[in-house]
């Protein structure tokens, strides 16, 4: 059917323009029920709810060191992508007063062109207070007004902090601006998404790194009353159908909690990376994860400190092996070969599961660093013996820094033959010289 014919059919239906769910006085009453107010801009009306908190919001995150200030350098580093060269830390020093924390409540969980952000929450520091502003559209005709107001507020800031915002919130907002034929350029903000560093820091210990679980397990926060995220779209649609505001109140509280948790989590991540002792991090798996992050960014003394502290705690044998291996690679990277070889010897001779990487590192150390070919051959033959006897007990679920699966029998045979040739050459040279 052609477009012209479709338009004629619609005209025959004599449809009237859609109406608001409530008259203006009703909208004002609903705004007051949310402790908000009706606000207007060039695109129309919307509800604005404003809340203010003291900075004791950060407790219990920094209760052990309340005088520590948030500089954000480490948070910026861990949230920045290596592939992105648009913004560099030295060009854009992190500044908390120029940072906004954002969280959206939407009409669907899967995204897509039909999903709207009916509530956009923004949190930021203003003096000694933490302010939260919530932009709410009472019906779909208010979307342009909400989007315009949100963009105007966002333009005051340089840094933007979210949780999974790079994959969900911001692409959704971008699509809504596009559909409404409004300009919106996400590249104007430096976006720090806390989901990814949270996974790197805590996934090994707690598994589920959703914001709600991080609140409970890491921030030690319990929400007395909360609405599950998966119910929020239906609550909004029920409101559109009935006009009842009361079921929406917990949704606004949920949004405020999410934003305040982003604020707390930002501080905690930055403080952990700056000095884990300042926030009392003692769990060995958290310390191991933290050490890996420092290792990746070349902060080797900090990485070593994390691994050594982790090894003072009670650990299963497989994790102790993993952390010792990681510590050895720190020593190797910093040229402390004596310390590295001592760790490898202890692991090879200790009561740990067989790991080819240990024997490989010892073989390389004696062949290339010390040039003691007989000793290198000893470790190669020992590895071949373990491999051929089928006693490899590698645990694929444990990650070793620098580990690669090069323990195949053929590669070890090649290494052995090379060492035998070197030893033979030395023997021939010795005979000639004598």
Write a concise keyword list for the protein shown above:
single chain; about 425 residues; alpha/beta; Nucleotidyltransferase, domain 5; Serine Threonine Protein Phosphatase 5, Tetratricopeptide repeat; 7-stranded mixed sheet; 16 helices; 7 strands; elongated
Plain-language structure description:
The chain is an alpha/beta fold and 434 residues long. It has helices at residues 3-12, 24-33, 73-79, 143-154, 165-179, 195-206, 211-217, 232-242, 249-274, 284-296, 300-310, 317-333, 337-349, 356-370, 373-388, 409-433, and strands at residues 36-41, 44-54, 99-106, 117-126, 129-136, 159-162, 190-193. Helix 5 (165-179) links the parallel strand 6 and strand 7 (190-193). Mean pLDDT is 84; it is low at 12-19, 82-87 and 391-407.
Estimate the helix proportion, in percent.
40-55%
Q: Can you say what the CATH homologous superfamily of the largest domain is?
A: Ribonuclease H-like superfamily/Ribonuclease H
Name the poorly predicted regions: 12-19, 82-87, 391-407
Total DSSP E strands:
7
Strand content: 5-15%
Could you say which structural class the secondary elements and strand pairing correspond to?
A: alpha/beta
Overall shape: it is: elongated
User: What is the gyration radius calculated from CA atoms?
Assistant: 30 Å
Report the CATH topology name of the largest domain. Nucleotidyltransferase, domain 5
Termini distance?
Answer: 100 Å
CATH-scheme architecture of the largest domain: 2-Layer Sandwich
Total domain units: 2
Largest sheet, strands/sense/barrel: 7 strands, mixed
Q: Provide mean pLDDT, rounded.
A: 84
Strand order of the largest sheet: 1-2-5-4-3-6-7
Name of the top-level CATH class of the largest domain: Alpha Beta
The helix/strand order is: HHEEHEEEHEHEHHHHHHHHHHH
With helices defined by DSSP (H or I, 4 residues minimum), what is the helix count?
A: 16
């Amino acid at each position: 059917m052609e477009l012209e014919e479709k338009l004629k059919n619609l005209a025959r239906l004599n449809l009237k323009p859609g109406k608001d769910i409530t008259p203006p006085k009703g909208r004002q009453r609903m705004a007051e029920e949310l402790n908000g107010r009706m606000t207007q801009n060039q695109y129309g009306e919307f509800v604005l709810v404003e809340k203010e908190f003291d900075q004791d919001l950060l407790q219990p995150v920094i209760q052990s060191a309340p005088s520590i200030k948030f500089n954000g350098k480490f948070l910026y580093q861990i949230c920045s992508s290596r592939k992105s060269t648009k913004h560099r830390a030295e060009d854009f020093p992190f500044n908390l007063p120029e940072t906004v924390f954002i969280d959206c409540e939407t009409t669907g969980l899967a995204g897509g062109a039909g999903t709207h952000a009916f509530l956009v929450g923004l949190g930021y520091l203003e003096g000694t207070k933490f302010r939260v502003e919530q932009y709410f559209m009472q019906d779909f005709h208010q979307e342009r007004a909400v989007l315009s107001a949100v963009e105007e507020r966002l333009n005051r800031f340089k840094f933007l902090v979210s949780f999974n915002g790079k994959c969900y919130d911001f692409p959704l907002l971008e699509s809504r601006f596009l559909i409404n034929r409004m300009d919106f350029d996400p590249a104007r903000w430096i976006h720090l998404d806390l989901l990814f560093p949270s996974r790197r820091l805590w996934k090994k210990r707690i598994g589920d790194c959703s914001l709600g679980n991080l609140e409970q397990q890491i921030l030690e926060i319990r929400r007395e009353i909360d609405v599950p995220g998966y119910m929020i779209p239906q609550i909004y649609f029920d409101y559109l159908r009935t006009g009842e505001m009361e079921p929406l109140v917990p949704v606004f509280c949920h949004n405020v909690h999410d934003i305040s948790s982003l604020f707390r989590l930002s501080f905690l991540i930055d403080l952990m990376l700056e000095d884990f002792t300042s926030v009392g991090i003692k769990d060995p798996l958290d310390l191991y994860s933290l050490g890996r992050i420092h290792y990746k960014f070349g902060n080797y003394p900090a990485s070593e400190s994390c691994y050594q502290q982790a090894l003072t705690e009670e650990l299963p044998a497989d994790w102790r092996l993993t952390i010792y291996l990681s510590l050895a690679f720190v020593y190797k990277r910093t040229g402390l070969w004596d310390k590295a070889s001592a760790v490898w010897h202890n692991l090879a001779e200790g009561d740990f599961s067989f790991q080819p990487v240990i024997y490989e590192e010892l073989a390389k150390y004696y062949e290339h660093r010390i040039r003691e070919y007989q000793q290198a051959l000893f470790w190669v033959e020992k590895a071949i013996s373990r491999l051929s006897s089928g006693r490899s007990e590698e645990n694929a679920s444990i990650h070793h820094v620098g580990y690669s699966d090069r323990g195949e029998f053929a590669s070890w045979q090649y290494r052995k033959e090379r060492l035998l040739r070197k030893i033979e050459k030395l023997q021939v040279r010795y005979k000639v010289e004598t």
